[in-house]
Amino acid sequence: MKLLVIEDEPELRRSLHNYLTDVGFLVETATDLPSAREKVAAHDYDAVLVDITLPGGSGLEIVRALRERDPSTGVLIISAKGSLDDKVHGLDLGADDYLAKPFHLPELVARLRALLRRKRFRGRRAIELDELRVLPEERRVEVNGAPVELTAMQMDLLLFLVANTDRVLSRSAIVEHVWGDLGERFDQNDMLYSHLKNLRKKLADKGCRDHIRTVYGIGYKFVSQP
Ligand code: CA
After folding, report:
1. Is the confidence at residue 181, as pLDDT, over 70?
2. What is the Å distance from ligand 1's center to 108 Cα?
């Protein structure tokens, strides 16, 4: 799950980056309004955490831009301004949630996960496709009731595929989602191919049918009916 943290206070930005990375998110940061604008225009994020008072202008501009561009991105406002106006305005513009500073990092993660679940999986706790059961928030996968042990990357890959069931995903969209900017440093096709191969094998070993289709020349599709 890929996040953008837009926050100008260096210490808070650092602690958000470290904590969110530790709990398994892929985190990018922006320090002011112009760089935030560039990032949201160029990349897709699962969720964006945005501070309101930023060098260069109001974070509310980003909230508005995200809503116009991609309604599936979760938007969480983190703001020191405890004013009710900001909160109401932000939610009116389409932010999904609002957290006033100071906040506890576990509280932020809980809100973020709830938000991502609502966005990506329409509030469902579990996605069940016959023998396969995926629990996104708990990051658990079962085949015929037996747990499948996946690496963090295999899990991210599977969750992204499942969230886009029956839709074709390009290789670059998958790589960008799972590896972010890191993906640019590797041979994307090789890397994706080998992770998918291992993921498929782990699922197949437990008796799961192969839901992952290769779409020639484009990428992959996770199908609900293999
Ligand atoms: Ca600020």
Report:
1. no
2. 17
Residue 50: closest CA among 69, 74, 26, 71: 74
Average pLDDT over residues 55-73: 89
Q: Ligand 1 centroid vs 31 CA: distance in angstroms?
A: 9
Rounded distance between C-alpha atoms, residue 103 and residue 177, angstroms: 27
**Domain termination residue (choose one: 73, 90, 121):** 121
Quick one: average pLDDT of 103-125? 85
Separation of 8 CA from ligand 1 center, angstroms? 5
Distance 47 CA to ligand 1 centre (A): 18
| CB distance 49 to 13 below 8 Å | no
- Residue 110 alpha carbon to ligand 1 centre in Å: 22
Tokens 């037996």 label which residue?
146
Prediction pTM value: 0.72
- Ligand 1 centroid vs 182 CA: distance in angstroms? 27
CATH code, domain carrying 79: 3.40.50.2300
Tally of domains within the chain: 2
Q: What is the mean pLDDT of residues 119-124?
A: 75
- Spacing, Cα 56 to ligand 1 middle (Å): 11
Distance CA 109, CA 100 (A): 14
Distance between Cα 51 and ligand 1 center (Å): 6
CA distances from 45 to 117, 195, 210 (A): 14, 21, 27
- The residue among 121, 156, 176 that closes a domain is 121
